[in-house]
Amino acid sequence: MGIWHRPLREWMNGLNTTDPQSIKGKLLINLIDKLVLGVLAAIVVFCVQNEYMENKKFKEIAFEKTKIQTELIATRQKELAQAVDDFIGLIFDKDVLSSGQLKDEADQDKLRTSLKKIRVTVFYLQTLNEKLNKQSQKLVNDASAIYIAAISGAANDKEIEDKLNTLQISYGDLLEEVRQTIRDVMKREYEGSHS
Amino acid sequence: MKKISLFLFLMGIYSLSLAQESPDISLTLIFMPEKYACNPDGYADYIKGEASGCVPLTINQVEKWKRAYVFIKTEIPSPDSNLSLGNRLFGLLDAYRTAPINTADDRKSIVVIFDWKSARTTDVRLTRKIMNTTGRLPFPEMTWEGRLQEERRWIHHERADAFLPIHRVTWILESGGRTWEFGTAP
Questions:
Q1: CB contact (8 A) between residue B69 and residue A152
Q2: Could you tell me if the ipTM is greater than 0.85?
Q3: pLDDT beyond 70 at A104
Q4: Across the 186 residues of chain B, what is the mean pLDDT of every consecutive 10-residue run?
Q5: Which of A105, A142, A151 sits opposite B92 (nearest CB)?
Q6: Is residue B7 in a domain?
Q7: Using CB atoms within 10 A as the burial measure, which of A52, A132, B7, B142 is most buried?
Q8: How many distinct structural domains can be found in chain B?
Q9: Residue B107: which of B96, B92, B91 has the closest Cα?
């Protein structure tokens, strides 16, 4: 019998214990004991359940945020691919490789716009995850070097080709870095939600 | 009669003011490899901007380079205005800011031809002053001196990135008792 309702027991003892009614009294005490225990158990269950739901909700929000972040990185990666496509496409298209210079002013403007697009996309990628800073900046630097070589003139085909190879390596490294970053973000979130 | 002479007098003053406003010097800026602007090896110390043993350039040589490299020709800016670089040159300088310039082959100069309207014999002095005083200067302030001997044109060259508007460089040209000051703008 619990100690928390001693005053009640004492009150029950005050009843006539030689009376058969006293069995009823004991039963009553027993019932009250169980009721109190039941209420306490319900409170504990409620608290635990509440905590669990809150935790679950928090994890859902965190996962949603992770999903948004990785989706944004993936979107920017696609945009970057398009910008690099346009940039390199113009170099090949206009045969800069053989002449060493992009002479047409309209084409120069297009190349400048593509370079700007690469820089803008890289800016957003860097904002989304600072781990991408170094590699994405290298890509911008290498693209800038090609732009200068193609516009400023008097570059030879070997020079442009070397710079294109460098850009290709930078781009490949950045793609790998983006994939790794997405994996890391997802992994961190998965581990967080299963701990 | 009085009206006509007053009109002629006013016209005279107006044409005089126009003559004073017209710029005396035209500028040609050529964006080109440093190793050619400062033949044979480029500037002795690019970062410190120390004096170099560059072979002096000739006008004929520089005029030929205009065919191979990007250049702009403009008048010296009027007071309180800047030298407009234009899309092409600004785009190049902007890209140059982020391009790797580890080797002398990648480094660029801007060669400037100062062209007066008539030949003269006088000293020329050009000062590079950096107005951005916050933090470390991106490159040192410098002064170059030369002399015109019955000549119209004076050739100057320096590191290309100095012309990027972001560095807020002001060039002060002094010659024949006159001074011109200008910066650059996109």
A1: yes
A2: no
A3: yes
A4: 58 49 82 89 67 85 89 91 92 92 83 95 95 76 93 94 92 94 94
A5: A151
A6: no
A7: A132
A8: 1
A9: B96
Chain B CB within 8 Å of residue A145 CB = yes
Give the whole-number percent of chain A exceeding pLDDT 90: 43
Q: Nearest Cα to B40, choosing from B93, B100, B105?
A: B105
Q: Tell me which residue of A184, A53, A192 sits closest to A129, measured CA to CA.
A: A184
Cβ-defined contact of B70 to A141 (cutoff 8 Å):
no
Give the CATH number, domain containing residue B104.
2.70.50
Q: What is the pTM of this model?
A: 0.73
Q: Search chain B and give the residue with CA nearest A108.
A: B88
Domains and CATH numbers, chain A: 63-193 (1.20.120)
**At B72, phi and psi to the nearest 5?**
-130, 150
Q: How far is CA B46 from CA B9, B38, B110, B120, B175, in A?
A: 56, 11, 14, 33, 28
A165 near B CB under 8 A: no
What is residue B12's predicted lDDT score, i.e. its pLDDT?
53
Structure tokens of A135?
């590699």
**pLDDT tens for each residue of B135-166:** 777 888 899 999 999 999 999 999 999 999 99
Contact A152 B87 (CB under 8 A): no
Residue B11 included in any domain: no
The answer to whether residue B72 is domain-embedded is yes
Q: Are B124 and B148 in contact (CB under 8 A)?
A: yes
Across the interface, do A153 and B106 touch by the CB < 8 Å criterion?
Answer: no
